[in-house]
Each structure stands twice: as C-alpha cells, then as structure tokens.
Design goal:
mainly beta; 8-stranded antiparallel sheet; two-stranded antiparallel sheet; 10 strands; globular
Length: 181
Amino acid sequence: MSKIGCKHMVFQPASSNPQTPNAGIWLAGLVEANLTLTNASGELYADNIRWESEDQFASGSLATEIADLTLDKQATLFGHTYSAQDGLTKKADDSSPYGKLGYVRTLSRRGVGKVHQAVIFVRSKPVEQNDSVSTKGSSIEYQTNPVSFNIDAQDDGQWVKVKEFDTEEAAISYVDTECGL
C-alpha cells in the first residue's frame, strides 16, 4: 500500500462529565502527520539463546503540520483563554486537555485502487510547539503551524482505531461522528 494523502483533522476535548461530551473542532487543513511510537521491550536469555521477547505499545507522539490555527482553536487545544474582544491569553499554568483525535488518510492498493482510512487516537493530548516565521522575500514560502499530540492508551489498553472506507466522504463522516463534530 502506498499512502497518498491526509486530510480532515478533528479534535474532541474530553469532558469531565461523560453524559455531556464536549463538541469536536475541525482544526484546519492537514499538511502532514508523522507518528512515532515508543514500545516497552524485554528479552529473556537462557541456554545461550533469546528464550522470550516482548514488545508492547507504551506511548506515541504524532507530529502534525496544520495550514492554519485560529486563536479560538489554539485556546481549545492548549487550555488558553480566548475572547473575540481580548484575543488569546496564554498563562504559564495553562494545561492542554486530553481528547480524541482523528483524521483521514488515503492509500493506493495495487489491484484495488484508493482506500480511505479513518484514524482515531482515543486518548491524545496536544503539545504546543515553538513558533517561527520569516519575512517575505522574492518568492513566497508558505509556513504552517506545527502541533504535536502525545498519544496514550486508555485504561483498557486501546490507543488507536483504524477503519477503512471505499469513499473519502464515508471516512470523513466516521471521523466526525467519533470525534463529536
């Protein structure tokens, strides 16, 4: 399979009351998403050979680039304060909420064609990244917004759900439903 695209990133902050879930937010155009996993590993050697070995998911980090990140969405992601009148206010003790994170990736499979996968990270936490900007020169260079997400497992061990669809619209609809949009 060849991965040929990604789009439609949605984040739903966790609610303190499971009976009234928070609404999800569409973040903006997804430019890229790179998942790095950390596994807990162990090996047992006996009789001069590796007798047993185990690798299990410990955590992950999803580094993304987003085309635009409005002030109100920054407030939702990182626990800052936003109002239309005052703008965005960041405080040292602001804390990002845990939540669900989803997006759609498109694959090309030989003999099948395009397949659209809805990817849902069931427990993620946004991590605010450094900001950089450069001046306009003789050519235009677009600069995107980096946002990372720590990926953790739920109490039952589940950390990601991936479901395949024949159409992009069906995959987007699944992400929207799963993430409260």
